[in-house]
Specification:
- With 325 residues, this protein is of the alpha+beta class.
- The protein contains eight helices and twelve strands.
- Strands 1, 2, 3, 6, 7, 8, 9, 10, 11 and 12 form a ten-stranded mixed sheet that branches.
- Helix 1 packs parallel to helix 3.
- GO terms for molecular function: cysteine-type peptidase activity.
Length: 325
């Protein structure tokens, strides 16, 4: 194992080119450790982490050259994840899982846009007070629970209590399963009563502390970006799955994220987020996506994902919302 990690270190350091010299990496590494309060158990662990950091640093520098030349529409930056390998990050933070089928005793409807309503070209629920602050899921693949959260649905209650419905807590899950659980239990606890812990725990839901419920959920037609746009404008923030498997998205800073390697096939989507709006930037259409990696990731915890480009990254593939009574 140590030999493999040493080999990875050598490979990472050899990848550092003249534009990202050893001195550049050393300075960035020192700044990174200071900014994020990074401490390591041993010199060996720090050496391995620095090797990973060097590789990520080089990726960011090379990408931002393309951004500066106008060849890509988004920039990257060093953040708190820069000492994690791509594999470790994906295994820890990405947890969307496709549900086998819509079933159970909840109401499931297919969203149909109201043709009498004119849909605006731009829309943002954040300006209307309908979006809660960005949270941080921590080292737990609970993105699906955060994706299910619109206003009052509480994350830890969902993480702990939906195993029997087919979700796997910190190992992943599905938003529609969460909606079904809330319906079957006549609600969900308040955050004050059931605070987020970022780990699997024993279900301790108490009906006396519930704050809201749902009668089921609505589905957006798979891959239909116009329907998703209409749903956001007329229904509210929409829970969506997306492909967040690319290494570069970990270090997203600003701009419109478009990745030609993204998939829009639901079985391959690996992250759950909340679509809270849409707009255009420099002629490029985008979705406003609320993530759950903290406010110090991306644009204060948000990312703009390309819209009207063949459903890039699958934002419109698996989109749904809870139905109010």
């Amino acid at each position: 194992m140590k030999l493999a990690l040493l080999a990875a270190f050598i490979a990472a350091m050899s990848a550092v080119n003249t534009a990202t010299s050893t001195e550049d990496v050393d300075a960035a590494w020192s700044d990174f450790k200071l900014k994020y309060g990074k401490e390591y158990r041993s010199l060996y662990q720090e050496t391995v982490s620095k090797a990973i950091f060097a590789e990520n640093f080089n990726t960011i520098v090379e990408h931002n050259k393309l951004y500066g030349q106008g060849l890509v529409t988004y920039s990257l930056t060093i953040n708190k994840f820069a000492d994690l390998s791509h594999e470790e990050f994906r295994n820890t933070f990405n947890g969307y899982k496709k549900r086998a089928s819509d079933e159970g005793n909840v109401v499931v409807v297919d969203f149909v846009p109201d043709q009498k309503i004119e849909i605006p070209d731009e829309f943002d629920w954040r300006t209307r007070g309908a979006v809660t602050p960005v949270k941080e899921q921590g080292r737990c693949g609970s993105c699906w629970a955060f994706g299910a959260v619109r206003i009052f649905l509480i994350v830890q209650n969902l993480v702990d209590c939906t195993f029997e419905y087919g979700n796997d807590g910190c190992a992943g899950g599905n938003m529609n399963v969460a909606f079904e659980y809330v319906h079957n239990n006549d609600g969900i606890d308040s955050e004050e009563h059931y605070p987020y812990e970022g780990k699997n725990g024993t279900c301790r839901y108490e009906v006396s502390a519930n704050v809201t419920s749902t009668k089921g959920y609505g589905n957006i037609a798979t891959g239909n970006e116009e329907h998703l746009k209409a749903a956001i404008a007329t229904v509210g923030p929409i829970a969506v799955g997306m492909d967040a498997s690319a290494k570069v998205i970990i270090f997203y800073e600003k701009g419109v994220y478009y990745n030609s390697l993204c998939t829009n096939i639901e079985e391959l989507l690996d992250h759950a987020v909340l679509a809270v709006g849409y707009g255009s930037e420099n002629g490029v259409d985008y979705w406003i996506i609320k993530n759950s990696w903290g406010t110090d990731w991306g644009d204060d915890g948000y990312i703009k994902v390309a819209r009207n480009q063949d459903n890039n990254c699958g934002v419109a593939t698996a989109a749904s919302y809870p139905l109010n009574y």
